[in-house]
Amino acid sequence: MVSRDRESRGGVLITGASAGIGLELARRAAADGWDLALTARNLAALEVVAGDVGQKHGVRTVVVPADLADLTGPARVQEELHRADFAVDFLVNNAGFGTWGPFVEQSLESQLSMLQVNAVALTELTHRFLAGMRERGRGRILNVASTAAFQPGPDMAVYFASKAYVLHFSEALAHELRGTGITVTTLCPGPTETEFQDRAGMTDTRVGANPLMMDVGPVAEAGYQAAMVGRSIAVPGVANRVGSLLPRFIPRRLVRAATAFINSPR
């Protein structure tokens, strides 16, 4: 098992920390001795998480409620952590959401909010906290993408595109930061048992009923371990790893058709 350097003075910032993968990553990081800064929209849920993991593992917890769909959200998170004298040595950009249905039938507001949370806020937070990591000569960034990043997704066009952005941005940044003491890891989970399917309105789709859907614990563990050793990409699960490779060898029109079928109602 990989453990953090306990002499590090910084802590971990996790977005979307109130549930799902973010919650499991908070538990995993606290068990490894990381102080936690937790952000999400739901203050009450964040306070429960902070109280539970802080008391269990004896780590410092800082709660910063913020809506990353708000253009001021990332700056507010940074300002609150500066006031709390909380240095971020490990940034986990986990917050994100999707919607299901033809693009033209989705509200423009929901699609722009998705881009803001999934891509723009992630980029802004990375830029804001990377500066401090460079000054200290150490740091880890874990950006949560999806196996959706490897192909286009009819009926979830903006979500799939946003995750492709996360993957490509993170890979490029990982290359730029070689030799600096800072690593960038992209976690690309497949279907996972979280509230994502309910929020996206896709519980009655084929992907929403995927029998290979993974539990959230192993997904979070895979991402955490990959970040600890500085691996650039982590795709949990054999089926997901195979699925992430197939689009390289199949004609694009067939990739689109297959994804459309998987995203369609049962």
Question: Which key phrases capture this entry?
Answer:
13% strand; globular; seven-stranded parallel sheet; 9 helices; alpha/beta; 47% helix; Rossmann fold; 266 residues; single chain
Instruction: Estimate the global geometry from the Cα principal axes.
Output: globular
Radius of gyration based on Cα positions:
18 Å
In CATH's first tier, which class applies?
Alpha Beta
Biggest sheet: strand arrangement: 3-2-1-4-5-6-7
Notes on the structure:
The chain is α/β, with parallel strands linked by helices and about 270 residues long. The chain has one domain: NAD(P)-binding Rossmann-like Domain (Rossmann fold). The protein is built from nine helices and seven strands, in the order E-H-E-H-E-H-E-H-E-H-E-H-H-E-H-H. It has helices at about 20-30, 45-55, 75-85, 110-135, 155-175, 195-200, 215-230, 240-245, 250-260; strands at about 10-15, 35-40, 60-65, 90-95, 140-145, 180-185, 235. Strands 3-2-1-4-5-6-7 form a seven-stranded parallel beta sheet, with helices on both faces. Helix 1 (about 20-30) packs parallel to helix 2, helix 1 (about 20-30) crosses helix 7 (about 215-230) and helix 3 (about 75-85) packs parallel to helix 4. The radius of gyration is 18 Å and the shape is globular. The model is unreliable at about 1-10 (pLDDT under 50).
